[in-house]
Structures are given as structure tokens and as C-alpha cells.
Amino acid sequence: MVFGPDITEQLARARADLRLGVPIVLAGSRPVLVMAAETLTPARLTGLLALGGEPVLAITARRAETLKAHAYDGSFARVLLPHDAALRWVKSVADPADDLRNPMKGPLTCARGGDATPHGLAIDLIKSARLLPAAVILDLTDAAQFAMQNGLTVIDLNAAKPILAARSPLHPVVNARLPMEVSEAGRLHIFRPDDGGEEHYAIEIGRPDRSKPVLARLHSACFTGDIMGSLKCDCGPQLHAAMAQMGSEGNGVLLYLNQEGRGIGLTNKMRAYSLQDQGFDTVEANHRLGFEDDERDFRLGSDILKSMGFSSVRLLTNNPRKVEMMEASGVKVAERVPLKVGENRHNHAYLATKAAKSGHLL
Ligand SMILES: Nc1nc2c(ncn2[C@@H]2O[C@H](COP(=O)(O)OP(=O)(O)OP(=O)(O)O)[C@@H](O)[C@H]2O)c(=O)[nH]1
Ligand SMILES: [Zn+2]
Q1: Where residue 360 falls among pLDDT bands split at 50, 70, 90?
Q2: Residue where a domain stops, chosen among 148, 163, 178
Q3: For all residues of the chain together, what is the average pLDDT?
Q4: Which of 92, 230, 243, 346 makes an SS bond possible with 224, Cβ 3.0 to 4.6 Å?
Q5: What is the pLDDT of residues 18-64, one digit of tens each?
Q6: Are 14 and 109 members of one domain?
Q7: CATH classification of the domain holding 334
Q8: What is the DSSP track for 194-258?
């Protein structure tokens, strides 16, 4: 028992399997076989259809709305898979890339009634693996035997539910001195979750007094803006302005949270950019992909701040959700410090959409 994986570790394995295209089994009162639509291969689709039964493609209500499919299950829908379903059909239901060129996938018929718990959990798991949120699912009669014969990871649904709903605790791993242009008194701290997910970083500048509100920034990773100097967003200038202000005040803490693309990952963010090139705004693009407009959990930030000994911040942000989430998770926001930099002709509409639809302050 000591050596075997616990449920958190099994879920990490399951995410890796799903990313590779290997199916998993969700065991519970309704045992099912689960594959991520994004990584489904022709051979596995053929194998699935040969098993018979009633396979479905579970998609989020956001994606269902675009496809005019009925989300009888509330936050998701179970689209019946035609018995001769082609891989192209599965991928085009899951992926909006060709929606405009090929708008009709249907009419799509959806299952209703019965226990849909495994379908919802499968979508959550696939989302946490940063894949398109769409799951091909088939009921299994002898799940244990099927899993053993095929060497598949088995996840106990009841054990997995609370783990997927909670956030994994973050542990400090190491910190070291990091002299930087903005301040020679820099220190980089690494935090690691238990669930095999992304590590997050804190850049401490100076030696801030723990008994006073610290100048802080919760920065979400943006490869395109932070590293490549993209003009499509304002992340790079915000990152540098926040660091510069901390440097000139002599104190501060910048959390670099690896929640790229507002929590959907860089690949899905690029899918969203591709939809933006087709005329959708940043919020519509996320919805067409099946995501909420913002999938981030800023409580990660308060967990890190608390573990570093901070209980009160002067938060550099224009996003009221960050302020609310900090306060709700026990870090006092003594002051919101606006961070208005980096507007240009390419990101003007993006910033206007964030103000109009996501509540960002102008
Ligand atoms: N999904 C998606 N993510 C984006 C897009 N543009 C930027 N991002 C990501 O958005 C995050 C930055 O969020 P913003 O909304 O700019 O700012 P914020 O962090 O909510 O608020 P501020 O504290 O005021 O900067 C980063 O993770 C970027 O990778 C986009 O078009 N689509
Ligand atoms: Zn950005």
C-alpha cells in the first residue's frame, strides 16, 4: 500500500494518459471508458465503435450553446455519437476551428436523464489536463476486467470528486538570491503542488515588512506577452511596470502564476487567438472553445502569500475579481493600485472587451 499511487497521484497519471490519447476507466455506480476527443486516434475510435453500446461525446454547455445542442445536464451536454461516426466529426464537435467554414455538425441529439456524474467528472479531468474540454465516453459492463485486459488506469469516481474540486496544497521547494535590473535585492521562490500540476513562482524584492501591507502583483503567465513582446495584450508592459515599481519602492512581491491563457494553457490560448482572427472577441473565443472566460483560481496567490508570511497587500491590478478572491481567501487588500500600461492599436479592442465583459476597471 505504501508504494502504490494514492488518488491524487492516480489522477496525475490519468491526465498524462488522456494527453497521450490513452483511455482511462472511471469506476463508480456507472463505470465508463473515457477518451479525450482532442487526442482520439482513428484506431481507438474504430475500436470504441466496435464495442457497441451508446457512446457519447460530452461537451461543456458553453460549446453546446454554439452547436445548438441541448445541455440537459446543466453545465454540460451528452451528444450521441453516430454509430458510423468519423474521427473528423468528433474533432469538429470538440474543436471550433472550422465552425465558420463548416457550421452544421448536426442536428445533434443529446442524452437526457440517468446518472451523468462520470461525464461531468471526465470533462473536469480533461480540462485540468489542459486539453479541449470534450470527452468520448462509453458505458462498460465489466470495467475492472476491461481495464486489466487493456492495461488502463482506473479512477474511483467517488474518491476523485473531492480531489478535483479542491486545489492542491502548494509547498515551498527552494528559494535563492536573484539580482535583477530592477533591484539587486531579489529572491526567487519556487512553490510546487502535490498533484503533479504547474509550479508557481514568487519574486520577492527587498525584505518587505510582514506586519505591513506589501506591494504585490498576481501576474498570470503570458508567454506571448511576457517573453515575445506580443502587442495583442498588455501583459509584458504590466509585468515590467510592476517590477519597476517594486524596485523603486525597494520592496514588493510578484507572484508569477503559471495559469497561461487565463488558465486554459498556451495551446488553447492560441486556438482562442485563431478564433479572434475570425472575428470573435477574447470572451466569445473562450466560450466557443468550451471554456469559461476566466478559468483561473487566484486563491493560489493567497496561499503563496500566506505561506511567505504576508497577510495584507497593496495589490497592483485593474481586475476586481482578484481583489474579491484575495479578500475571500484571507489576504486583506489594503489598497488597489491601478496598473495602466501598454495600450496600443493591436490590443485596444481586447482591453475594451475586458472592461465591458470581464469587469476590468478602466
Ligand atoms: N484565453 C485567453 N487568455 C488571454 C488572452 N489574452 C491574454 N490572455 C491571458 O490573460 C492573462 C492575463 O490576464 P488579463 O485579463 O490581461 O489581466 P488580469 O490578470 O485579469 O488583470 P490585471 O491584474 O488588471 O492585469 C494571461 O494569463 C494571458 O496569457 C486571450 O485572448 N485569451
Ligand atoms: Zn498577455
Answers
A1: confident
A2: 163
A3: 95
A4: 230
A5: 999 999 999 999 999 999 999 999 999 999 999 999 999 999 999 99
A6: yes
A7: 3.40.50.10990
A8: TTS---EEEEEES---TTSPEEEEEEEP-IIIIIT--SSSSHHHHHHHHHHHHHHHT-EEEEEE-
- Residue 278 forms part of a structural domain: no
How much is the ipTM here? Answer: 0.97
pLDDT 10s digits, 219-248: 999 999 999 999 999 999 999 999 999 999
Which pLDDT score is estimated for 104? 66
Site to substitute for ligand 1 among 200, 224, 230, 235, most atoms within 8 A of C-beta? 235
Binding residues, as ranges, are 217-222, 233, 235, 238, 260-262, 282, 317, 322
Q: What atom of ligand 1 comes closest to residue 232's alpha carbon?
A: 6
Inter-residue contact 16 to 36 (CB < 8 Å):
no
Percent of the residues in the chain that have a pLDDT greater than 90, as a whole number: 89
Structural domain span for residue 59? 5-163
Ligand 1 pocket residue status of 282, Cβ below 6 Å? yes
Domain count, the chain: 2
- Cβ atoms of 332 and 299 closer than 8 Å: no
Distance from Cα 240 to the centre of ligand 1, integer Å = 15
Residues 248 and 106 in one domain: no
* pTM attached to this predicted model: 0.95
Tell me the catalytic residues: 294, 296
Judgement on whether residues 16 and 152 belong to the same structural domain of the protein = yes
At residue 79's C-alpha, the angle toward residues 117 and 96, to 5°, is 110
- Of the candidates 120, 138, 163, which is a domain's last residue? 163
